[in-house]
Amino acid sequence: MKRIVKVGPQRTPDGYFIAVAPPEAKSYLNDFSNIEVEEMGTEVIIKSRSRSTLKKIILELKSKGFYIEGHL
Fold this sequence. Notes:
Layout: E1 4-7, E2 17-21, E3 35-40, E4 43-48, H1 51-63, E5 67-70
Parallel strand pairs: 1-5
Antiparallel strand pairs: 1-2, 2-4, 3-4
């Protein structure tokens, strides 16, 4: 099964940049601060007010074999 991370280019109405990832991505997020992680069923929602922080997370997940769908 592919491990896909979905990313949207715009902020949400409450000011967050969002990425949706599979649950195994959560184990790679320990080194990042100023993010919120919410578990929603079979997905993990990663929220950050900083675009650069979310880009770093995306690069980390990509290096671990996740496929990135979308862009910031």
